[in-house]
Amino acid sequence: MSAVLLEVEHLSKSFGGVAALEGATFAVEEGSITALIGPNGAGKTTAFNVISGFLKPDAGIIRFAGRRIEGLRGAQVARAGLVRAFQTPRVLTRMSVLDNMMLAGKDQPGERLSLTWLTPGRVAAREVEVHRRAIDLLELLRLLPLAEAYAGTLSGGQRKLLELGRALMVEPRMILLDEPMAGVAPALAEQLLGHIRRLRAERGVTFCVVEHDMDVVMSISDRVIVMDEGRVIAADVPDAIQSNERVIEAYLGRLAAASEPAIADRGSAP
Amino acid sequence: MDFLNPAFWTFVAIIAGIYAIFSLGLYVQFSLAGLPNFGHVAFMAVAAYTMAILVVRYTVPMPLAAGAGLLGAVVLALVLGIPTLRLRADYLAIATVAGGEIIRYLAMNLPDLTGGPIGSIALLGPGQIALYNGDWLAFLDRIAANLSGLLGARLSRDAAAALLVWGLAGVLVLVLWRCERSPWGRVLKGIREDEAAVTAVGKNVFAFKLQALILGAVLAGVAGLLLAWQIGVFSPEDYQPTLTFYAYLIVILGGMNRLLAIPVGAVAFSLLYSGTRLLNFFPLSLIDSGSRAFLRLFLVGFLLVLLMAVRPEGMLGNRRELLLEK
User: How high is the ipTM of this complex?
Assistant: First the structure.
């Protein structure tokens, strides 16, 4: 068993009177592909938003690579090596695909206006490295022919690929993907799955994936975390999850739960 | 007014150059970083007032007073930006609209400090005429004299000012050209497109937005100083919100998101705005001058609407880019 990379303890977050997270606790192992599933409203996306620093938790602890990150802002979490993608891909539409990638390059001194003028050599040197990395990733993701196109001209699936590429530009240890397969054409979805497997195998990137398609979840993940009503109700290997009673109950709704007493009543009737 | 009077066109050129610098500030904020600043004129006003008050009241040397004026614009940018730039763009828009008006009303209602509604000429109180641009005029005269010697032709003071203003505008365009193409400019454009996406890749969006707001404020401050020096007097009425919208006109007229469109837009706007002053020939001369002034504004508006209908991307803009959804 490998080390835990992300550890979430008793995470809570309410919006007004509605509790989206109520003490969620789970862990993601380094180098794993972990699926986060659960019915609508279970708190999956809120969990992503809180972990990635886009929302402040009301309570709870988040540890990433041994470091407490629950107080960090979104940009700081990303710089710590934990990068998120969005449910609806957010590409920078009026910029080229290549610029979308290069913008995300890390440690570029030229992002400080003063250094652009004072140390143009260092900026240019880093720019060459960032450019090379962007081209490599675009090639890997088969987006290279579109490098000069405006990102706004890409299809939904291509945007998901671009967002994955942009996340990889940050050289993250872990990527949070929120429904990567939603709205993606089947051929492209297959490609996207392949990329996730390959990135884990070749670059050791850890993935935590929110996904609704159970075939995808079962085929891709090493471990599945199931959430319901803001809590984690199960965490296990995919096969065990499929036969977990609490999970079935959560998914099939209160239907099964509600019908049980009815059966019992009938059984005890004279 | 004579259509061929060179003094008139020199004046138009100076004003166009100042508008270009003013609009470059808005370009950094609005076109690059996507910051909706609707109180751009306030930076101009703060710089001009700070400079004039220091020169007139405290006899501070002109360059130092100018520096303080720009610092004033920076302070205003911080005051408007720090509370609002972490929030949605709407809040900055509201804060800048209000900020612009507050500055103007302050200037109007603090007569002991600003000369009140009478303006800069009353900076020393009633009964005394206050002038703050003597050093500037002397500076222009020296430049005019030097250039005259160089060119072998006599150069007027205004011609020297026009050259100076456009020279500065040219340098600023080159500087911003480089900034826009730097990694810094790339991040700003990303923020304009989608700041959550830029946050998600580890960039401190707030810091970038604040830098853009400050840089734009400094450019507006420079324009404010030049305008004040060149006109020689100013009052709160000279800093009406319309000036901010002239800058938007220039940015949009020239072409959104195109740096070179700013000087082009400034010239086009000035020609449209000042050039229509000369519509005093037959049959328009049958109408009295007061009505002609209104007719002129109507014509300016009509031409702008026409241009936007025919070329929504502006003179140098890119229509394909315009059609992409954010």
Answer: 0.88
